[in-house]
């Protein structure tokens, strides 16, 4: 066979690795959730803002273009003027750029929220995607820790607005300055010790996983796991380890605050950090948020490299079953803190800022686990069937469809091959349509329509296995004058909704 006669190769449809196509159910659930979060943010006086998906790479901070293609962790491309641009990695760096660029027009404190997709050029894995949604709120230009306390209260209110009960969540609060003070107190201050400090942070971060004994090993010489693999430790001595473990092991902050202040006394910022935690504790308590909802917890270290003061994390405390079938605490669904250095990078002057970010997909998984999403399920459309293909009949079917839509009822007129009526009912079944509207020639002459309650029909069919069989039994069908079509459809839909409510309650 000559080259000319070879069939052209069909293009293979491939979803890019680490990305997902989202279904109607997922999108409706996300919209429902985002609307509830937005309502809380608006109530606190925050306004929306949107920044583009792309920024110049140097604006994203740590991802400076230090190689031919700055793709470490970010997706980058070169503009036609040879400037590197990257898809945004988070929603905070773009906000910092926006504030710096519009500083003279912006009213401080600047209180905004934004929801949007962020992109990570990382190896995808189970539950790890390269594109996911975050929902952030930030206050820029407020130096006092009351702004941080308010963020914690807003996080608590947001989780409750989504249906997460008290006792099922806690907002945990720590302070970067206190941790730095502890590091300084054990002799790990200064730039020359940054590597060792990072090792200590990593060890502390394993507290939930390995417990105090495991962390003690990681702070010292190292730890061997069950498989025999050895992780080198941070190399601290007994006294240093005791101080770190005391700090991260504080369970009741009020009882240990004085001892903690003593530990960090004389360090550059430690005492200031303890004082800030005390103020946050007092403010949230005065506003009615006790320690079961917002808790000062020195074991929070996630992302501390980035922050300059208070840090906070929203954790869900109920158990779920993981992929291995083990019961585990669901864990973090969002967090944030004070990042006074981020806007300053552009400004050459200090600009205080604090904010938090919710991981929308992760929180959605939690809400599904709790049965809190999809309560307002979206009803499939009422189907107006087509019995006759002439223009006059089609016009009449279209008029029925529009009359339903004009009353706020989801409706569609069948658009496929109308000649096989059975296919139309099969389509309605697959769509999950609640009602089918039918008008043949006889009905048209009488000025009436048949309304078929497909949900009730299914129920009445009982033991009949074959869909076609029970539909032919003409169960759950009423005939009404054309003028009463909309009112009757409404009545049936309300009855169906009532049945669903009863079924849920029962």
TrEMBL record:
Signal peptide: none
Keywords linked to the UniProt accession: Aminoacyl-tRNA synthetase, ATP-binding, Cytoplasm, Ligase, Nucleotide-binding, Protein biosynthesis
Highest taxon in the source lineage: Bacteria
PANTHER family according to UniProt: HISTIDINE--TRNA LIGASE, HISTIDYL-TRNA SYNTHETASE
Keyword rRNA processing listed: no
Sample GO molecular function, one term: ATP binding
Domain named Aminoacyl-transfer RNA synthetases class-II family profile: residues: 31-381
Similarity section: Belongs to the class-II aminoacyl-tRNA synthetase family.
Subunit structure: Homodimer.
Binding site residues for L-histidine: 90-92, 120, 134, 138, 302, 306-307
Protein name per Swiss-Prot or TrEMBL: Histidine--tRNA ligase
Example GO biological process: histidyl-tRNA aminoacylation
Keyword check for Ubl conjugation: no
Gene this protein is translated from: hisS
Record-linked NCBIfam families: hisS (TIGR00442)
Enzyme nomenclature, EC number: 6.1.1.21
Pfam family, one: HGTP_anticodon
């Amino acid at each position: 066979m000559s080259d000319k006669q070879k069939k052209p190769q069909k293009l293979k449809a491939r979803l890019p690795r680490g990305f997902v196509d989202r279904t109607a159910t997922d999108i409706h659930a996300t919209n429902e959730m985002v609307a509830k979060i937005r309502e809380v943010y608006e109530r606190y006086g925050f306004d929306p803002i949107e920044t583009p998906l792309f920024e110049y790479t140097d604006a994203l901070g740590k991802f400076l273009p230090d190689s031919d293609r700055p793709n470490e962790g970010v997706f980058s491309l070169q503009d036609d003027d040879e400037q590197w641009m990257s898809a945004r990695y988070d929603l905070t760096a773009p906000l910092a750029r926006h504030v710096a660029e519009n500083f003279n027009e912006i009213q401080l404190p600047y209180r905004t929220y934004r929801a949007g997709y962020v992109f990570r050029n990382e190896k995808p894995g189970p539950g790890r995607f390269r594109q996911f949604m975050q929902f952030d709120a930030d206050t820029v230009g407020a130096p006092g820790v009351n702004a941080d306390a308010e963020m914690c209260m807003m996080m608590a209110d947001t989780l409750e607005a989504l249906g997460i009960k008290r006792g099922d969540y806690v907002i945990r609060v720590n302070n970067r300055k206190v941790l730095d003070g502890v590091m300084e107190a054990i002799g790990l201050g200064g730039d020359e010790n940054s590597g060792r400090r990072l090792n200590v942070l990593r060890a502390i971060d394993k507290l939930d996983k390995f417990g105090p004994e495991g962390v003690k090993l990681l702070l010292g010489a190292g730890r061997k796991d069950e498989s025999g693999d050895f992780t080198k430790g941070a190399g601290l001595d007994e006294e240093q380890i005791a101080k770190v473990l005391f700090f991260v092991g504080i369970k009741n902050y009020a009882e240990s605050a004085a001892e903690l202040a003593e530990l960090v006394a004389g360090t550059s910022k430690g005492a200031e950090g303890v004082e800030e935690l005390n103020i946050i504790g007092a403010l949230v308590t005065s506003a009615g948020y006790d320690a079961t909802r917002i808790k000062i917890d020195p074991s929070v270290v996630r992302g501390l490299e980035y922050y300059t003061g208070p840090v906070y994390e929203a954790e869900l405390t109920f158990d779920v079953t993981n992929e291995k079938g083990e019961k585990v605490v669901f864990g973090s669904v969002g967090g944030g803190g004070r990042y006074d250095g981020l806007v300053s990078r552009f400004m050459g002057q200090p600009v205080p800022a604090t904010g938090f970010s919710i991981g929308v997909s992760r929180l959605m998984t939690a809400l599904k686990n709790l049965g809190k999403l999809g309560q307002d399920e979206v009803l499939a459309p009422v189907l107006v069937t087509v019995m006759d293909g002439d223009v006059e009949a089609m016009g009449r079917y279209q008029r029925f469809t529009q009359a339903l839509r004009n009353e706020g009822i989801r409706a569609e007129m069948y658009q496929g091959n109308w000649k096989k009526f059975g296919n139309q009912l099969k389509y309605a079944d697959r769509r999950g349509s609640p009602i089918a509207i039918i008008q043949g020639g006889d009905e048209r002459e009488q000025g009436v329509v048949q309304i078929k309650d497909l949900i009730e029909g299914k129920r009445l069919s009982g033991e009949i296995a074959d869909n076609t069989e029970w539909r032919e039994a003409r169960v759950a069908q009423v005939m009404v004058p054309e003028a009463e079509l909309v009112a009757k459809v409404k009545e049936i839909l309300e009855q169906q909704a009532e049945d669903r409510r009863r079924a849920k309650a029962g």
